[in-house]
Model the fold of this input.
Amino acid sequence: AHPGQCGSWPRAAFDFSSHRCTQKVPRSKLPDMSSAGHSKEFFDLVKSIGESRSKQEEDKIIIGEVQVLKTKLKEPKIEPRKMKEYMIRAVYVEMLGHNADFAHIHAVKLTHEKNFLAKRVGYLTCNLCLNRDHELMLLLINTLQRDLNSPNHLDICAALTSVSRLVNSEMVPAVFPTMMKLLGHQQEYVRKKAIMALHRLQKVAPEQMETHEARQAIRKCVCDPDPSVMAATLNIIFEITKTNPSSTKDLVPSLVSILKQITEHRLPREYDYHRVPAPWVQIRILCVLGMLGQADQRASGEMYETIQEALRRADSGVNVGYAIIYECVKTITKIYPSHELLELAATNIGRFISSDNHNLKYLGVTGLALIVQVNPVYAAEHQMTVVECLEDPDDTLKRKTLDLLFRMTNGGNVTVVVEKFVTHLRTSVDQHLRRELVNRISELAERFSPDNEWYVRTMTQVLELGGSVVPEERAFGLMKLIADGSGADEDADTQFREFVVNTYVSLLEKTTIPDLLVQVTAWILGEYASLCSLDGYAVDDIIDLLADALDRPFEMQSTKGYLLTAIMKLTAQQYDALSTNPQVKDTMTKFRNARSTDLQQRCYEFGALCQPPGSAPLMQEILPYDAFSEEVDTDSSLSFLDGYVHSALAKGAKPYRDELERERTKMSSKSPVKGALKFDAYELPTKHTPVAIQEVAPPNPIESAGGGGPMEAPKPAINAGNRKWGPTGYVGPQSMEPEKPKAQPPPPPSSGGGGGGGAAPPPPPSSGPWGKAGPPKAEPEKPKELTEKERMAAALFGGGPAAAPKAAKAAKKASKPKSRVAPKMASRPAAAPDNLLGDGPVAPAAPAAAAPAGAPDLMDDLFGDMGGGSSPATSAPTGSPAAATPVVDLLGGDLLGFDDPAPAPSPPVTAGGYGAMGSPAAGSLGGMSGSPTAAGVSPAAPMGGKGGYGLPPLLQPVQMTTQQMAGQWGRLPAEKKVQVPSSINSAEMMMTRMKDQLNVFPVQIIGSEGICAGASLQGGGNCFLHGKVVQGGIELIVKAGTPQLAQAVVERATGALR
Done:
């Protein structure tokens, strides 16, 4: 009997200690395998196949066997014993790659036999030779239904095996009700087979598992008295939790109780593996608990004790025990954080990472990367081991260590980490690794660059070493940074551009450089070649270098176009001196006859611009100096053609109809002809409509401060709930008190990060156990000389040997604003994590482009300056309290700083956008790293403004017709599809909400669908939205030029349409 109702299970219901497999089949009732003897022909076939020495000899034997089987199967009234043997011989034929479809119908007939051995062979042959869509499945489904209702449990098990293998989505309704009844069968073997078959059907027809009856039956199986049935049910619970965690939240006490009983060896001994009790069941339960405890303090609190006990008991010195330890560490990093569990996890991971076994060391580096996402301070203990792993000959371990360094990077160690990445990029030949290194170096340079010059040098190395794996967006971002400059001082911008020109002018003398680097070099020289201060590089000399580069072979046709345009720009800037330059004339004359029509057009246009009179002013107006960032006024409606259109309509021309109108007219004109034959397939029978279960969106996943994991495309965030994690760690709402750490003595004044409890400032020097006199003075010790590895470790984990004192002093003084590094198109980077060694605040990263003064920043309102240093987007002004905000403990104390008597004011913020690697910026809804209600902002009521929710706009409207939008739809590479739960019930309301909150242009509404068009304000290209109002929400499709823009728009639209 199954106890109670799911959700209020008594803990005693899971007591497996008294379970023993008492129901055994008597040996007298078991089938006698020796009585089912085979003929001599069968043994001769098997022997000849085994003794064949070549594939040709084997094929000759099988071809002869096929002819024999065809003759044998034509005989009338074949005995079931012989038919069973023929089917086994047909299986041999199929396994060796030959066709035995003539035997398939006989296999289906054999499943009708009453003899169990014959029936089992028939099912076996069908499972091996048929597929889900085979035409003979229509004959087999009736047999499956009959055997599923058989009183013989052996017949039921044979049918359940075939259901898992052969039933397709159309046949599921025919067997699903019977399978639900089998979950209560008296034989535990049948119940286990039934739950395993349901797990398979869940992937074939998931809508069948959405009914309330199916969910309740599966939940009862978790409490089955047989451990094998319970273990099989965990797979279905895992799949349901992965898609909808809120639907299984109430199973946390039950799963915790099961895990506790397993770790206490209360299961039968046959479930042990190397004296570890049911290890795979433990791992599956830990996976489910990790998903159920995300950002849920109450549910996580019920798991702490059991996870700690499982972690302690799994330390048995065998591999399967290590697997359980690693899964416990993963679960600890996913659920609501606990100081005690994190320290225990770090201790176990330290044993792995210090092991001589490479497999355990790889496991340790992977686990340490997970722990660093929650609290980076735990990586400081293993810094020397991490440095040794970088020099390990094992490529797999080296890659995983690079991934760990990427997550640990901050403003203090970015130069050392990037240098390591560049070294691996220079020596690596794996294209996938090179592409990943390019993306990571570019992201770290944009987020943590100490100055503009370092950013330019780093990106130049990336362009030169990366070659074809570098995305064009990286080069465009570099050009935009050079054109925009810092925006604070014109003289500083001019000096910076002079440095850039001097850096790139010598690259053209190299014989082999990638096309993308040539394009960037040509653009820089075409814009600012006059700023070159190197000897021997006058403007005439630079034109000669550009002309010589045109004779080289390039992979991309557009590269020569960049070089020609650079020559044209330089000629326009100094027209009087260069218009008669013979090198310019010869180059333009030469490429007028080029094969490329693009090059021909450029040369002819240049020749037309050079024609007097008034050539110089016209050329300088068309090719102006330093006008990269200036906006060009365009008439998107093409109003200059209105006269032509009106005259054509007056002459009887048909008015223009967009693509959707033409398609609708075309569909309406397809009326069926009376009396014509119908070739359409019959409609499927109506299925039972499952009861819709309302799903509560789970909280957003953890967002680490050090960046994501390996580069892969992010999933669309359908949830618009309150975020509990921010760039620097956990930031919960007021109502959710984090677990208080145990009382510990206060850290010494020199420690800067990782300790403390809350956002309160450190005590003054006069306080402490020694009173006003302060601690007793110790005699100064002679500094110890560091080895080369120790110096590298200090640079990686603390920003260099001298970084700690400088960072500590910078936290006490006002920080001076630095020049901006990230181009305007890039977003505001995420806040840097705390210094891993606790040496003080982390140096600020390179900021993004300037924003209007006084612009509100929801991110800074929520966090202040939790990293201990200035924000990556902007530096705190001189004298600002934000510059002296102490480092905050990520797990203890007042996380939001509500108890701080003097909260720091919010610094200025850059324009909202999306990050270079897809992380939403501060201005986007996806970049909110905390609960909106914590700052007094209600997520249900927008605060006004085109950005929605008080955020700066992400898009600008683009007016276009439906045909224009249809022509560009397929050209946008990035696509995101989400279903947003919403109360909107009309397309007009949906389009109005999109127009007001997303700042897009509504193009057209047809029925319950609508399309909108916009363009990114940060240079990401166009963005199109297609929305369809369905029952319970909106189906939204976003097409954009980059995956980052599409993800940012999806997150913004999810909040706007709820």
Remarks:
- The longest strand covers residues 1022-1030.
- The first helix runs from residue 40 to 51.
- DSSP finds 39 helices and ten strands in the chain.
